[in-house]
Amino acid sequence: MKLRKFSLALACVLALAVSVSLLVPANRARAFEGDAYAIKSATIVTVTGATIQKGTVVVRNGLIAAVGADVAVPADARVIDGTGLTVYPGLFDAHSSYGVRQTEAPAGAGGGRGGGPNADPAAILARLSAAPSSEGLLPEVTVVDQLQVTTDTFDQQRAAGITTALTAPRTGIFQGQSALINLGDVAGEKLILKAPVSLNIGFGGGRGFGGGYPGSPMGVFAFLRQSLLDAQHYREEWARYNKNPRGMARPQVNKSSAALQPVINGEMPVVFSVSSVREIERAVGLAEEFKLKYMLSGAYQSYQIADYLKSKNVTVLLTLSFPQKPAGLDDPESEPLRALRDRADAPKAAAALHKAGVKFAFTSGTLTRPSDYLVNAARAIEAGLPKEEALKALTIYPAQIFGVSEQLGSIEKGKIANLIVTSGDLFARDTKVKHIFVDGKYFVAKAPEQTQRPGGAFAGGPGGPGGGRRGGGGAPGNAPPSSESPSGDASGIATGLWTLTTNSSRGEMKMTANLQQNGGSVSGEITLPFGTVPITKGLISGNEIELEYTINTPNGQTMNGKLKGKIEGNAISGQMEMMGRNSDFTGAKTPKE
Amino acid sequence: MNMNKILLCCLFTLVLGASALAQGNEEILIKNATVMTASHGNIEGGSILIRNGKIAAVGKDVKASANAKVIDATGMYVTPGFVDSHSHTALDGTNEGSLSVTAMVRMGDVVNNTDINIYRQLAGGMTVIHQLHGSANSIGGQNSIIKLKWGQDVEGMRVSDAPRTVKFALGENPKRSNGISLPGATRRYPATRMGVEETIREAFTQGREYIREWDEYEAAKKRGENPLSPRRDLKLEAMADILKGKMDIHSHCYRADEIVMLMNLCEEFGIKVRTLQHVLEGYKVAPEIAKHGASASILPDWWGYKMEAYDAIPFNAAIMTHHGITVAIHSDSNDPARRFYQEAAKIMKYGDLTEEQALQLITLNPAKEIRLDHRLGSIDVGKDADLVIFNAHPFSIYSRPEMTLIEGVTYFDRKKDLEMREQLVKEKKALIEKEKRIPGVAQPTQAVPFTPTWAEEEEDGHFHDGAPRKRQ
To answer: From CA A285, how far away is CA A279, in angstroms rounded?
Structure first.
């Protein structure tokens, strides 16, 4: 029995390994590593030098072997006829979370990873009230340890022309030590260009509802200050000990303080994720208080303070994710003018920074579709940024900022062969990326899917285990057995105990819902951090479910909540409305015993 | 129609801030007004001369240079700019409620200079606010003091020589008796009033220990030794500063017993409570408060919204004033902060304070509580030219501020505001139209850049200090 299970698992692992190494789909990634390529008769935009109108780029062993108008095509090269096409260096995304494994919620009591939610409501409650995890509070966490790349992880990015990215998680206060990676399709370690590059810090990373200290914006600052002060003390303590260890008690090693040493010594830059002007000012204030080397990421409101940023000589990783009109806005007049101005002005940020002489590179920010990256870069150009500057902010500027301009950022002999071949001008709306090289490896651009979740899909999450849409991600052996039959149950697809997770601005919140479906109506109760309350209204039509509930707090406040979602198998996802705010939620049904 | 008005209010505010240019150097003469000095009576037909942002002269007979800008205030009233000794306006957070002692957090780190309530309060004559941490824990964070210089950056709003203050809280909020708690979850200590006292005593004791640790370190250095410096602990550093009298205690409190408890506890550690905030039962222990030397900052007429608020009376301010206590009215909310003068007027009805005493509740007295009465709170030569010009007597329900000046700069001008509305409506319309023409914009495919607001906390009335304001 045990043996059978083991051999089954082994078979799965083997099958997966084989599929990764051999069965690479022909339409996507033809691996001709070590082979030579020549793109001939193409317009070559070198970025650092003059554009070559009818030239050839030769790629060999992952590098650009030759580039020029009179370069001969080697006999062994596979030839791409570039007539009518344009070659650009592969684009950078100067701050992303591409390829970072999505960490699951702190396990707390019981419940193994991937084993589905724990069936016991008591255990769920125990998890709700468990001690908060230290996730997002540890500067020693490195992205290198969290990279999870499979063959298709970066399909969308490559199709959008992005071949290099700075990557780190986007949640928490200490978000991790970032890595600069090439967006290829091989194991994470092989993609790393440089790591660690920076320590990434966010101010929105309090621990959220009931999560412990720090749980507020001012708590975040106190926490950061104390961490940096502790690192300074640690430096002093060890310097004093190392100077004269004899007769002195040995200081204790502290991973967090140790990891912060290059930061407080000004060797490793901090990347602060910021949005508004006041967040920018807070980041600058903190950096100056501790004499940190730093950059700003996001900073969409920097259009208001370009001169200030210049006076601080700060580098900006500028987001191309512009503010959007809120969904479901009935009356456009109901928005404050400042929101409208913000949306109108955000695309002007790049031009403002350029004019003020601030060094900047583009990032995708919170864009969920990589294909929007160039679309929005074009909007920055429409808003006044010279086209050459836009191109540089996608290529050579980030290469310079991250210290890899000897290897990347332009089409020059000896540089890494990260190239994109387009049907025309990079910023024209109808231009398509046709061919892509990452580390000299050739990819045909894959048509972008309609939607994509940032950072990869949940392994074994919505979509159901065994569905195999993504083949279980890169986590073989993680898929839970799919013995339960979720739908077709006589009692209705909603019936059962659900665990739900929502992410609000204050962090993650867990809920459970015990539901009973009766035809088109649903009854039951929902347990929130505020307590357990009955469902006041529950409707289901097809797989679309709508639940309402009311919470009366002991001090007489009334809060109405609403959940609207879709059930697919054992998974549910949708929108949650609480205290007038909307957030997404996902969840799963607890399997019956 | 009302909705439209509110929207307009949202609108017009932006431009005005920019128009409040940093004049300051010019001479301004406000003439022929009823000047309510808040320190030495009213001057009928009085004038105020402003030079370099300061009050240069006050009186019936004030001479200005020929090129002074003249504001004719005939028939109008001028008061000092109002000071709110207990505000949560213009902050991106309220409570760091995770621990019982969070003296390390600083509200000054999260000032939001774009909060529209700054402008709305300016329109009600408010010029200075004491931005307090919430009352979720026994010892909250360090507070911040700003002037409502709408349009300036955060540094421009800060009052540079303001004293450091810290928030304490007693009673139901820190013990979380009204809070919603997680089923089955352990509750945060303390859960009783005894626990609150113990929490504060423990923090004081730790602070005293921290002082000793550093004193020993300094002494060892003096002796020529090479000691390792103690770890800097921001929480204990704050506690040490409280014990050294470098940081004033502003404590949320309701009941007479806890008021006396805190004063005794502080006296035990050789310090004083600077201001008792809310202090609903202050009238019961007014002699004790006067003896201790604390001032009082109150809600004029809120009561009954929770158990500990049952014994409040509207005569609280008058009774404490007659006992020689410095009493101020505070807003604790964006709403009364816009009509602060009416809050003060109520005390003339409830009690027998003079008009000037009532005016002092929102000017000179709160300025004293935050130790800025040397430059704020009354119309006296040498003080900051923070002034409000009313169209009628400020204690009349029919009056409204026409202009609000801070350091001689006009930050609110009703006339300009009215003029601007049309233009802003036009701009808004144009932007909405323009947006329709940008392809792709209307599709919510991208997430809005994330800015934490912690707005939920603000909606939880009980996390705030005083009454739940959002009554339906």
So the answer is: 10
- Between CA A351 and CA A360 the distance in angstroms is 10
- Chain A interface includes B74 (CB < 8 A): no
In 3D, which of A403, A459, A440 has the Cα closest to residue A190? Answer: A440
Burial A499-525 (b: 16+ CB within 10 A, else e): bbbbebbbbbbbbbbbbbbeeeebbbe
CA distance B343 to chain A (A): 25
Query: What angle in degrees, to the nearest 10, is found between the helix axes of A217-243 and A277-289?
Result: 20
Q: Which of B264, B255, B243, B247 is nearest to B285 (CA)?
A: B255
Span A474-529, pLDDT tens digits = 222 233 333 333 333 446 788 888 888 876 555 667 788 888 888 888 888 887 76
Contacts A–B by Cβ distance under 8 A: 216
CB B313 within 8 A of CB B306: no
> pLDDT for B102-132, tens place per residue?
999 999 999 999 999 999 999 999 999 999 9
Q: How many CB atoms lie within 10 A of CB A4?
A: 8
Q: Which of A198, A410, A381 is nearest to A294 (CA)?
A: A198
Residues 6 or more apart from A17 whose CB is under 8 A from it?
A476
Q: Cβ separation of A337 and B185 shorter than 8 Å?
A: no
In this prediction the ipTM stands at: 0.90
Nearest CA to A321 out of A295, A301, A296, A351 is that of A301
Cross-chain residue pair A368–B445, CB shorter than 8 Å? yes
Per the confidence metrics, is the pTM higher than 0.90? no
Query: Of the candidates B418, B420, B385, B391, which has an alpha carbon nearest to the alpha carbon of residue B403?
Result: B391
Give the chain A residue nearest B112 (alpha carbons): A278
Residue B430: closest C-alpha in chain A = A340
Nearest-Cα distance to chain A for B277, in Å, is 21
